[in-house]
């Protein structure tokens, strides 16, 4: 059957309208949240994870139009709740090394998924010196090199000894650093192990040394504002020996402490499995959000220098690093997020 000329014209018009609207409809589909369920995001107790939680909350709420809620989190309770209840829905920086068995089982059972590495080059943990010290003494590259030079890192309270700044009492790194101090025989080689009273006291000691360009040997980890702000060099501790490290972090281990590098702990974007099935756009976004150690440390420097909370730190990242985060989302989502920030 042939269409009359008027009918033909109308059909062509409809076809053209449909063709031109298809890209817009596809773009809208790509930028939709896809679920009416509240996406609760765990704000962990450390600065990097807290900032990431707020970055993702802003993008998902303002850009994708999701119902978002920030909830208090920490590694063990967050993962446990996610595995049993599917909530929180998102853990933006989940360190899985301390929850290996239940997390692996949860993935195998289809209860949770890992969408990306939150820290693409892995976490950092070890002993550091300022770069200006290494520049002045280029032969110092390893912990063994440092141990031979206690006179360079004088203890302010005992100038005849060198000082290693350890972790505050009660932190896991206090145990591991003390074990390494013993395994390396540092006490007999002219060193004192100094335990600061708090994380703030450790940071203050590091800041004072860098400001005065004085030598300092200290334990630290990343990503953190300290490693983002100060040019520190990580010393070579040799290969990582998992069995030795496990013993070094356990006060009840019967074996003697051994020498090992600190392992790099996986830090992933973990989600309840329903995110992938019910909100594929959200899952697609979260699969792209990995940042390097240096990038996250840089984010934290702003928070540290401006005494900003996690929400303000996140907003600053979105305002100043558009070239970075806009690559994670469709243009329409990026435009909505930018508008919300203004």
Description:
With 342 residues, this protein is of the alpha/beta class. The relative contact order is 0.18. It has 2 domains: 36-121 and 266-341, D-Maltodextrin-Binding Protein, domain 2 (3-Layer(aba) Sandwich), CATH 3.40.190; 124-248, D-Maltodextrin-Binding Protein, domain 2, CATH 3.40.190. The protein is globular and about 70 Å long. Helix 13 (293-306) packs across helix 14. The chain has 16 helices and 11 strands. Helix content is 48%, strand content 17%.
CATH class designation of the largest domain:
Alpha Beta
CATH architecture of the largest domain: 3-Layer(aba) Sandwich
- CA-based gyration radius: 26 Å
User: What low-confidence regions span 5 or more consecutive residues with pLDDT below 50?
Assistant: 1-5, 12-27
Main beta sheet, described? 6 strands, mixed
Order of helices and strands: HEHEHEHEEHHEEHEHEHEHEHHHHHH
Helical segment count: 16
Whole-number total of structural domains:
2
